[in-house]
Amino acid sequence: MELFAAMERDDYEELLFCQDKASGLKAIIAIHDTTLGPALGGTRMWTYATEEAAITDALRLAKGMTYKNAVAGLNLGGGKTVIIGDPKKDKNEAMFRAFGRYIQGLNGRYITAEDVGTTEADMDIIHQETDFVTGISATYGSSGNPSPATAYGVYQGMKAAAKAAFGSDSLAGRTVAVQGVGNVSFTLCKYLHEEGAELIVTDINKEAVARAVEAYGAKAVDPADIISVQCHIYAPCALGATINDESLPLLKAKVVAGAANNQLKEPRHGDALHEMGIVYAPDYVINAGGVINIADELNGYNKDRAFKQISKIYDSITRVLEISRTSGIPAYAAADRLAEERIALLRNSRSTFLRNPHHAISRR
């Protein structure tokens, strides 16, 4: 891999390789863009097949965080860390302490949080070395488990998508097919059930399915069948790439709105949804509740304030879908445009400030 060419392609600011032989730490911190503020993005621990695969993932995820934070209205840029290793076997305190020191060395340019393969407990260890970490234990003034916040944001975004598709944001009487019933989507099902939606659920974890059936009167189906059930809304909440060549001909929903990341296998599948007249709530817009929630910790966490901001995901989805409709472009492209315009506006205003000598501040 030609690293500078890869960074130049999507204008990354920094790629940092972190190594600590004693603890086994091998980490890559990617900072994509800090125009809006310090880069915020989680730390993922995964058994990558190659170092190149780890670098590619870090870069991809960092750029995704730039766009997510921008559309969410946060004054934060995008970054991400990947730690190469098996999260079930390779973790140790020294590893996360060493990683925390690397974050501290960036002096606030990058703020981390938990992600796939890392936990609140891991963030607590990092916190022993740096304050530039969120998602730590509530005993440190943190917001705790981000799942309820993510679920609330998806619920708000789903209502906005329903309004665009059906003319009303009421979900009462709507059938929602939920793919995956983990922590986020179980809470999402609670919101949907309380509003009077009919639920169809699936998961490879049979206990999770049984829990949703008992709590919310959901109908259970086989994982292979969830995409083709008769429903108003399909909510992908587990695996990515469930919108693909095989699933699109089977999809009967008029709305796709869920918590999963990377729901489109390729951008062209978002083009296909647009051509089919299916309303799509772009994943990084609708599932931003968790990052909005942890970002509030930077100001001293206040749940009411955080959830008020999360409720604005309704407005973000509405705006994305309006851009899609009026410009005749797919929803995912409309979301990208919204993010890029916000970043460009601030970048231009900063450069104007720096060029104008009347704005100069005397330090004498």
Provide the fold topology.
Blueprint (H helix, E strand, L loop, with lengths): L2 H7 L4 E7 L4 E9 L5 E2 L2 E4 L4 H21 L5 E8 L8 H13 L4 E2 L8 H8 L19 H20 L8 E5 L3 H13 L2 E5 L3 H11 L2 E2 L12 E4 L18 E2 L10 H10 L2 E2 L2 H4 L2 H7 L7 H8 L2 H15 L3 H25 L9
Parallel strand pairs: 3-5, 3-6, 4-5, 7-8, 7-10, 8-9, 10-11, 11-12
Antiparallel strand pairs: 1-2, 2-5
Task: Please give a handful of descriptors for the protein shown.
single chain, 364 residues, alpha/beta, six-stranded mixed beta sheet, six-stranded parallel beta sheet, 12 strands, 45% helix, globular, disordered C terminus
Describe this structure in words.
The protein has about 375 residues and is α/β, with parallel strands linked by helices. Helix content is about 45%, strand content about 15%. It is built from 13 helices and twelve strands. β7, α6 (about 185-195) and β8 form a beta-alpha-beta unit. The protein is globular and about 55 Å long. It starts with a helix and ends in a 9-residue tail after the last helix. Mean pLDDT is about 95; it is low at about 360-364.
Biggest beta sheet attributes: 6 strands, mixed
The helix tally amounts to 13
Helix content: 40-55%
Distance between the termini: 49 Å
Query: What's the overall average pLDDT, rounded?
Result: 94
Structural class: alpha/beta
How many E strands? Answer: 12
CA-based gyration radius: 21 Å
Ranges where pLDDT stays below 50 over 5 or more residues in a row are 359-364
Strand content: 5-15%
Q: What general outline do the C-alpha atoms trace?
A: globular
Give me the strand/helix succession. HEEEEHEHEHHEHEHEEEHEHHHHH
